[in-house]
Amino acid sequence: MRNGLTWLLGLLLGLVLAGCAAAPAIAPLAQTDDVAAAVRIVPEYRLGPADKVRINVFGEEALTGEFTVGNSGKVSLPLIGEVQAEGLTIAQLQEAIAEALRQGYINEPRVNAEVLNYRPFYILGEVNTPGEYPYTANLTVLNAVATAGGFTYRADTRRVYIRRADSGGEQAYPLTTNTQVAPGDTIRIGERFF
Are 79 and 54 in contact (CB under 8 A)? Predict the structure, then answer.
């Protein structure tokens, strides 16, 4: 009888421990949902100073070329002069150039524009090589940290502080594989306190 009771208690203890071991598997799902809700959304790209664009005007080789958005926020083009580019999307810039060309130069201009070089991003704080780096499409904070030589041993790898080029203050975001960087952003990796 004693062996039967020992066996039964062992079985019950095993079931209780198995149930306890399975319970924590639910907690990470809730944390993942919270992190996903806090992911940074980068809006559609808008041009700014130091962006380099290629503009093609179909059938007009003299009007086609590579141009840089100046500090004034304008692109200086042959024939039509300066066109406001800062704050515009690529589609809006194409339309602005086409509209300027319609003003007595070309009846139905077909304009295509693309960004060749985005403005750089900046990273500072607890990374091995802080500084200015060229932006690439779909850049995430972890990619930016890798570009800057990785984290230092003191880095807080849970959150990142990002200041957009067009805003005054920085905002904290969770440091995940989905946290996006925009051209002109300043990224700061803080120091952990433990």
Answer: no
Residue 76 near residue 70 (C-beta atoms within 8 A)? yes
- Strand pairing category for 186-189 and 159-163: antiparallel
Q: Alpha-carbon distance 106 to 30, whole Å?
A: 59
163: left (phi over 0), alpha (psi -120 to 50) or beta: beta
| DSSP H helical ranges for 23-180 | 27-37, 90-102, 141-147
Residue 177: half-sphere exposure toward Cβ, Cα within 13 Å: 1
In angstroms, rounded to a whole number, what is the distance separating the alpha carbons of residues 24 and 12? 20
Residue (of 169, 91, 40, 93) closest to 83 by Cα position:
93
Instruction: Tell me how far apart the alpha carbons of residues 171 and 137 are, in angstroms, rounded to a whole number.
Output: 21
Q: Which of 57, 90, 64, 67 is nearest to 183 (CA)?
A: 90
Please give the model's pTM, rounded to 2 decimal places.
0.66
The pLDDT tens digits for 90-147 are 999 999 999 999 998 889 999 999 999 998 999 999 999 999 999 988 899 999 999 9
**Residue 182: partners with Cβ closer than 8 Å, 6 or more residues away:** 42, 43, 45, 121, 135, 164, 165
